[in-house]
Amino acid sequence: MKIEIYMKLFGKDIVVPDSVVNSWIVVIILTIFALVVNSKIKKAKVDEKPSKFLNVVEALIQGIDGLVESTMGPKNMFFAPYITTLVLYLLVANLFGLLGFTPPTSDYSVTLTLALMTFALTQFYRAKSKGFVGFFKSFTEPLPLLTPLNVIDEFANPISLSFRLFGNVLSGVIIMSLVYSALGYFAPILTPVMHAYFDVFSGILQTFIFSMLTMIFISSAME
User: Is the pTM here over 0.70, yes or no?
Assistant: First the structure.
């Protein structure tokens, strides 16, 4: 299922691809989810047993908080809300293919934007923790001769981060499209196992990898 937006701007035809539209839909879904959770938490009473829904949400938040604490350290727990948002967005976006939509993360513009956000946070907190002089000095370590390689390595991080997520999700979309085209009416019978791997397993795995690398890059820059 494809939902594209066509518009005219300054006399030029503008097409918003379905992957970007789906990204907006994911954001809307997560916003509604956050409002529902907030409403249920406000209505919950401390002397009553919480609902199963709130138990699941609490377990999810505690799991992500524990991951942030073990990866970035207790002093960097202020990153937990951002990492939680990133995990939820990637998880829903990667699993969007199960509903017949194009996953937003199969568009390189989406994955590159996420990787550039990680890159910006990495450089900002590197400069904040090391100071102006220390920021530039960190690129000359352990030897000034290695400065060009250090700079190249720093810019390679967002590229590799974005291509890893984009390539894995896009390959799953292409393979499933080919399978559906080849099997025709028999596809719904034979493809559930492939969906379980390419959409569920691979989607969850790529969410974990992207989030972990984001935490590692930022915490390493702050050391």
Answer: yes
Q: Specify the number of domains making up the chain.
A: 1
CB within 8 A of 200, min separation 6: which ones? 95, 98
Cβ–Cβ under 8 Å, residues 9 and 26: no
Q: Give residue 142's pLDDT.
A: 76
Q: Which tokens go with 91?
A: 């998880």
Mean pLDDT by 10 residues, the chain (223 residues): 65 76 91 92 80 87 92 90 93 86 88 93 88 80 80 88 90 81 74 77 90 91 79
Q: What is the structure's pLDDT at 91?
A: 92
Tokens, residue 165: 């997520």
Cα distance from N-terminal residue to C-terminal residue, the chain: 46
Per DSSP, the three-state class of 15 is strand
Q: Give the residue numbers spanning the domain of 184.
A: 5-222
State how far the Cα of 5 lies from the Cα of 219, in Å rounded to an integer: 39
pLDDT at 114: 93
**Sequence-ordered list of residues with C-beta below 8 angstroms from that of 59, at least 6 positions apart, any chain:** none
CB atoms within 10 A of CB 92: 19
Which residues have C-beta within 8 Å of that of residue 38, sequence separation ≥ 6? none
Print the SS3 string covering 53-88. Answer: HHHHHHHHHHHHHHHHHHHHCHHHHHHHHHHHHHHH
What letter would DSSP give residue 1?
-
Closest CA to 83 of 215, 222, 223: 215
- What φ, ψ does residue 5 adopt, rounded to 5°? -115, 130
